[in-house]
User: Fold this.
Amino acid sequence: MSHWPLSKSDIVRPAYRSLAQGIAGAISAGSLRPGQRLPTHRELAFQMDVSVQTVSRAYEELIRAGLVTGEVGRGTFVQIRTHEYDIMPWHTATTRRAATDLAMMTPVELPEMAEAWSAALHRIADRMPGHMLHALSPEQTEGRYADMAATWLARCGLVVSRRHVLVTNGVTPATFTALAAVTNPGDVIATDPFTSHMLLPAAQHLHLGLRAIAGDDRGMIPEALSDAVRESSAPIKAVFLLPAGGGPTARFMDRDRREALAHAADAAGLRIMECDPLGPLPARRPPPVASFVPGSAFYFTSMTKCLSAGLRLGFLVVPDDMVELTVNRHQSVSWMATPIVAEIAADWLETGTADTILAAHRIELSARNRTAQRILPRSSGGLHGLHRWLPLPAGTDEAEFVAGLLDHDIALAPGSSFAVDTRDPAIRISLTRTGRGNLESSLKTIASFLPS
Assistant:
């Protein structure tokens, strides 16, 4: 059996075993997706015309087999394979140190950044309000830094009121907060076939399924999203998007596709979750997807990838009808943003330091991306992106390719770290954690591994 739901005719004696085998077959065939909630014991007993004890025994067999997980008070869920979702893109680089780390995606370490930290720390030492040094109330950080957040968001193309903005410790807690506010266990999130490495473990923790939606060179296809919502056996609650070069494939969505996708999602009753880790770093960017349907969209960005890896500060824009619930979820995840980090961010904006770093960062990234494009012409990425995406030739063993480069002291992020389902082999190449000269020689080594 490989279908779901099962029918009474599928059950033969012993009933518990055939029920367990039927559910296992549906999981193997993909009819039951990772994170999907199974019926309660009583519901399934009624549907199959068996006893509650029979269902309980079947579920116990599936739990022992590692196919489902049961949680008191929440239900029984199809297990998400941890070997797929728990490994971070830089896993190999951290377990076996490489001289050149092209796996971790961080800003380039520029001299301007070190100078900015030193100057800001000296300035705020004398002006940081005493009550902020001892702040324990989320309202204190939200009140003091809401205007700063609005200023940054305007650079990203969004004009929002203070009420709709949460200050967070980066994109990661913002992502988890938005997911927790919108979904229930067993719900499904639509996303690209290759998506953020943060989404995968977050979905696992919240018992959510992920549905890969087809795309083209311009990004996710609106019609494919609409079709998926109609065809899905489990409720698709939201669509998770990375339209501005921050996703693993470094794809940049044009304005028309953003607008069409926004309206398709809105018409399907989906919440939009727009993740924009690069913020205003890419120049001449189209408006965010969230700007077209603000009533149903979450938008989250941060300063970290743009200005400095240590500046762990982000902003979550929330739809009007979700503000109270989202604030509650954020407080349960990370309570509040760290005031001293927010104070440094505000200082950089007030003094023009943020603009200085952004300009220097764009110049450096432009040079690195041009080098990568010259050496690896099949790679894709924006001029101001932190990484490039390189599809590997058909038939290439992705794991062997990555391991071979590691033997040459070059760490890469395998495409499988970002894959929602089985996809063609690829690698993500960070351009930022080494000097330009070493980067160029490393890229040439990667090119030499590609079949001619």
Observations:
- Residues 82-86, 91-95 have pLDDT under 50 and may be disordered.
- The domain at 129-350 is CATH 3.40.640.10 (Aspartate Aminotransferase; domain 2).
- The chain is about 45% helix and 15% strand.
